[in-house]
Fold this protein.
Amino acid sequence: MGLVGSPEWVIEVRSPSNTKAEMLDKAMTTLAGEGAVEFRIVDPATRTVAVHSALKGICVYGEDLAVPAPLFDVRIGVSELFAKR
């Protein structure tokens, strides 16, 4: 038994070798057609989360903001993502 269809979310952590153009292409490809609803890019270098949405466009969240996670009815603080544990 496998999963059918696209995931609701795709989350990618940007590595130093990924270009901005490459990440944008991945986001647009993922959202195209019957693709995912959101593509999120977590960027450790800039300490940001970019949310690409098929319905809302692109929104970038910095460390002083919280990223909405509507599927789970929560908000995730960007600073928490990069906090050392």
Notes: The longest strand covers residues 38-43. The chain has a mean pLDDT of 89. Residues 9-81 form a domain with the tt1808, chain A fold (CATH 3.90.1570.10). Helices lie at 20-31, 78-81.
